[in-house]
Automatic annotation (TrEMBL):
Any matching Pfam family: ROK
Database matches in Gene3D superfamilies: 3.30.420.40
Protein name: ROK family protein
UniProt family annotation: Belongs to the ROK (NagC/XylR) family.
InterPro entries, A to Z: ATPase_NBD, ROK
PANTHER family, per the entry: BIFUNCTIONAL UDP-N-ACETYLGLUCOSAMINE 2-EPIMERASE_N-ACETYLMANNOSAMINE KINASE (PTHR18964:SF149), ROK (REPRESSOR, ORF, KINASE) FAMILY (PTHR18964)
Amino acid sequence: MKKSIGIDIGGTKIAAGIISESGELLNRAEVKSDSSDREKMFTRVVKAVEQVLEDSSFSITDMEGIGVGVPGKVDCEQGIAVFQNNLPWAQFPLSARLREQFGLQRITIDNDVYMAAFAEWKAAKGKKDETFVYVTISTGISCSIIHNGSFFRGAGFAGELGLIPVFSKAANKLERLEQASAGPAIEKLAKKELQMSNLSTKDIFERYKGGENEYQSIIDEVTDNWAQGIYFISSLLDPHQVIFGGSVIANNPFLLDIVVEKLKLYQIPEQQHLLSHMSISTIKQDNGVVGAGLRVFERN
């Protein structure tokens, strides 16, 4: 059985896993990030790899290679982490440093959302003659598009769904989707509308599900904004399938049913085939690690 190491890098934590060629997560480890310095951050990545190996019966020589998902803009060909909002890795030669550290020649890096999308596409048995979209809703909002079996990258920054303008009823103006309805925005909205501070998104959704009617306006605003964003995707790409991940929606799957109903109001009949092909990730928080590991086995 061929194996690889997949790494999912974030500003607060780094997850590493040992992945089989079939996509099975054999072992997983997680360490805290240290974004105070580029070398300290790299040291934490090394620690994550060492930890996942220590907790298993495998060694680095058993691995086919390492795949890494990194936030922001990535030069996949050169193996360089180009730009990130929350990491000190501007123009960081990540692939070269990992080869030097671990002695493995096969190092694959890409944007973290793209890595998660690849795992979801594989899990959904996506077809190479179709258009597949993965949408993540968490601290931020983004998406990745796989068309005819390959990523659609544009000039290098495609998939930034969070930057699309939507009409926010709460603000009575156009706002970027991420500013209006990502996790932090939902918390700010609750504070503004309900005069309640220190509420997490988890608290908001749990209270809504518990029947507290004052949270209905929050749910309506958020899901309407998401539906507007998905309608952009529906109209521009007419995808065959959309999978949703990220903690905000993956942990609250009832929200997708609301989005589907609202999206239907925007769509014309020729677009509504998508409504029955929208679903929540089954891999959830591990999709970045699994996707990064699986990309090692891709030889194109």
